[in-house]
Structure formats: structure tokens, C-alpha cells
Amino acid sequence: MSRRIPQPPSRRGEPVVIFRLGSQRFLIASAEVEEIRDLPQGNLPATVAARSHGKPIPVIAADRIFGVQSVRLEQLLVLKVRRVAVAISQIEGMAELREIVALPPGFHGQERSWYRGLGLVRQQIMPVVNAAIFVESASEPATPAAMAEPAKAHSA
To answer: How does pLDDT run across 58-114, given as a tens digit for each residue?
Structure first.
């Protein structure tokens, strides 16, 4: 009979998802993400059905929030507690974030509410997204287009 040896408390950091909007990289806490879906090609739906409760949730285009121009949106981050889906260019991977540092003074106005701070991952400094910003934007539709079929789910 084998027995598991108790492990000391982890000194690891916060698990994060690295995602792209065009050429820009961002981080979001993996605890905020329920699932990742592909977007129907060339179609940004106004809502998608949440797997957890089946009800429609709004789709927010992240490029509009962050002011990133001319990006191709190919995937959705369906957030757990926030009840929104966020259209992004693509998932780049996952990492552990050991520390979040305060935003420097160069970030001002709305930018200060968009991010929790900055994180160093894979020797690159990236903004750590405040997921609450997507809920605040949920009242504005992602596009003026009519509703489309829900996006196809990936296992996250």
C-alpha cells in the first residue's frame, strides 16, 4: 500500500493565462477563466451560452476595451464568476506569476482600472488584466451585428 507524503506548502505564484490581442500580450488569472472557445470564423457573436448554466452571456471584444486596432479575434475566454466572454486574438499559454508590481505613473486614466499591475513572465513584462473591467463593459454590445450561434467549446 502506497501512501502519499504530505508536501510542504507551495511557494509557487499565481497561475495565469497568457493571451494576445494582435501583437500585444496580456495576463489574466487562470482562476477567472472557466473555458476557452474558438470563435466562428469571421463572426463575433453578441452572446454565447455558458456551459455551467446554459444561459446566454455577453461577448466583449477586448480590442475595444484596450484600444488595440485592427486585430483578428479568434478565441473567447469565458470567465467564471464575471458572467461574460471576452473575444481575444489567441491564447499563447499558461505560466506562474510570482509577483505583480504596481503600475508605473505612465499608466493613467482608464488604464489604471484595466490592470491589476505588471507581471514578469518568460522574461517579458506584461500587464495583468483586472477581469472586472469586462463586466463593466458588458452593457455595451461587442458589435452591432445580430446574435449568432454560440462558439465551439475547448476544454480548458
So the answer is: 999 999 888 888 789 999 999 987 789 999 999 999 999 999 999 999 998 989 999
Taking alpha carbons only, the member of 153, 156, 154, 148 closest to residue 59 is: 148
**Annotated domain spans of the chain:** 14-154
Cα–Cα nearest to 75, from 48, 53, 56: 48
Q: How far apart are the first and last CA of the chain?
A: 33
* Per-residue model confidence as pLDDT tens digits over 19-47: 999 999 999 999 999 999 998 776 788 88
Q: How many CB atoms lie within 10 A of CB 57?
A: 19
Q: In b/e form, how buried is each residue of 29-44, taking b as 16+ CB within 10 angstroms? A: bbebbbbbbebeeeeb
Contact predicate 75/38, CB 8 Å? yes
Record the pTM. Answer: 0.78
